[in-house]
Amino acid sequence: MKILIVEDNLNLLEAIRETLVAERYVCETAEKYTTASEKIYMYTYDVMVVDINLPDGSGLKLIREIKKINPETGIIIISARDSLDNKIEGLELGADDYLTKPFDMAELVVRVKALLRRRNFSGKATISFGNITIDTGRREVTAGTMKINLTKSEYNILLFFFSNPNRVLTKESIAEHIWGDNMDLADSFDFIYSHIRNLRKKITSAGCDDPIRGVYGIGYRLKRDYN
Amino acid sequence: MKLIKRTYFLTALWLLPVMFIGSIFCFYMIEYIAYEETDEFLTYEMERLLEYHKENGNLPDYHKVSDIIPGLRYEQPLFKDTLLLETGDNEMVPYRMLYFTINHKGRDFTIVLNHLLLGKDDIAQGTVLIIFGLMFLVAAFLVLIVNHVTRKVWAPFYVTLGRLTHFKIGDPLPRFPETTIEEFGALNATLSALLKKITNDYQHNKEFNENASHELQTHLAVIRSNAEKLLNKTPEKSGNLKELQTIYSASTRLSQVQRSLLLLSRINNGEYSDDVDVDIRQLLLQALSIYSETIELRDIAMDKEIQSCHIFIDAGLAEILLNNLVKNAVKHNVQGGFISLKLTSFMLIVENSGLPIHGQPERMLQRFAKGENGNWGIGLAIVSQICELYGFRLSYEVSGGSIHKITIRWR
User: Do A113 and A136 share a domain, yes or no?
Assistant: First the structure.
């Protein structure tokens, strides 16, 4: 899987590249519109992660170009601009997803993975961790041999964990993942705690071990030594 | 009231005293002239009689002579007013009488001449006719003149006013017409300077917002991603984890606060004005679905009465408004509390149980109002700002200590 990252802030570019490389994607980077434009004419990418504000051009123009050359490429916009205006334009041009800066790397990873799943398996894919399996096409979760019924948020949290098995998920990133801009962070931690408690209960009552481990004061992660 | 109507009105008002004084003047003038004429006529008759008497030694049979009083003498001819009975219509009418004396064969005779005078009622009638006729003419000409003059003199003002009314902030500055009238010239110059200042401020504010959003958020993204990276690398037993968590949380919180402030600033700046017909009912149901699980987690009893409601508003702002209201009702609620929603085409009422607050409820509508346990946040300030922008009437009440009620009247 080959990903092109277009972002003019070098620090952020490096952070994104490292994150995606750690997820075993092949990454190429461009800091400018012109470099990115050259690259999309020369190579094909599975996903392009693109910032709208570039020093020498607009990311929206890049999206238009790549849609002409290689419409198969999945596009994720990362922008600091207010989501209300650019979002609509970007999505109308054919972008698949939109992330407002600043975002968590865990969030970027889950979006890239979801995008690739949609592209490559036309919506049908399963992700497993231990003996728990998520069928993302049907939105079904099987723990051991039993199907378990999860609410929308519980399902999203579990998928978020499974997409980031080697990462600590902070309370903040989980809150943003579920509610986006729709909840103030400090108020949402109680709800997250309840959601995770319920999720754990459902998994253990299906006869499986609890895969989630709390990281004190920070958030949660999947257990490294889970069977 | 329009300028021209006001001018008419005031002019008409000023015509009233003119009319009053004019009527009195006219009345006495006519009366004076009538006396003059009558006296002149009677004097002339007297002289004619005296002449006749001198030549012929007797008096002609003259109908104006009403009386001859023998033995009475007046050194000077004397005018008197009197009322005589008019036998025709049995009415007392005013007469002017002239007494003068002639000496006939050694005896004095006082001759009395009389002549009919104009009655007061006749004069009054004439006065009214004259004044009304005159005023009508004056008024008619005034209307024509004022109309013409106003149109001509105020023309540059109306052009300025028209351009100003159509001006929207962000448009290129309007050009006001050249005028030779000093006051309008000054008005135009002042307006131009003012508009330029406002437009510049608006542009600066907008640029600041854009920079703040782009530059700050990008660097916040760098802080956050690196803090996140360190969080993942640092062993859990290490003492640095707590500090790292603090940095990470603060950067997350900072970006959220900044986003909210930017939103407020942009609403204030009028940058969202893409007004369309929005189905409020649908948006409210959508907002409820976002928080449905949270409502369930808290065991909150929902009571909703939602009728159809369409409002002309920016779609993005409408969504923010409703989401913030529902969010507020959910997040400040208590375990096992309630939310009661009522939407009609006139108003929206959100009532919910919560924690008791101290102080003025209206204070919650301000940015970062401080509550017992920290900030109440900025959500309601945004609601309040949107309401202000669209002229919705917003009220916040707390009853029974812990029942919060927000009412928005759409118009």
Answer: no
CA A102 to chain B, closest CA, distance in angstroms equals 4
Segment B370-400, tens digit of pLDDT: 554 444 567 888 899 999 999 999 998 888 8
Domain stop point among A120, A146, A180: A120
Q: Supply B164's token pair.
A: 């100003």
pLDDT at A85: 62
Instruction: Give the closest residue to A78 by CA, choosing from A67, A66, A63.
Output: A63
Q: Which residues of B touch A80 (CB under 8 A)?
A: 213-218, 221
Whether B174 maps to a domain, the answer reads: no
Which residues in chain B (266-325) have CB-CB distances under 8 A to chain A?
Answer: 266, 272, 290-291, 293-294, 297, 316, 323
Q: Are residues B84 and B117 in the same domain?
A: yes
B147: in domain:
no
When CB atoms are compared, the residue of B224, B272, B297 closest to A194 is B297
Please indicate, yes or no, whether residues A70 and A163 belong to a single structural domain of this protein. no
Tokens of A37: 């434009």
Sheet (strand B78-86) strand order? B65-70, B107-116, B91-104, B78-86
Q: Which residues pair with B277 in a beta bridge?
A: B312
pLDDT digits (tens, 9 = 90+) for A155-168: 999 999 999 988 89
Asked if residue B141 is part of any domain, the answer here is: no
From A53, A168, A185, residue closest to B232, measured CB to CB: A168
Residues A160 and A198 in one domain: yes
ipTM over 0.90: no
Residue B372's pLDDT is what? 47
Residue A25 lies in a domain: yes
Note down the domain range covering A75.
Answer: 2-120
Pairwise CB contact (< 8 Å): A181 & B236: no
Question: The whole model's pTM is what?
Answer: 0.69
Residue among A19, A166, A184 whose CB faces B331 most closely: A184
| Structural domain total, chain A | 2
Q: Is B230 on the interface with A (CB under 8 A)?
A: no
Q: Which of A14, A19, A20, A29 is nearest to A1 (CA)?
A: A20
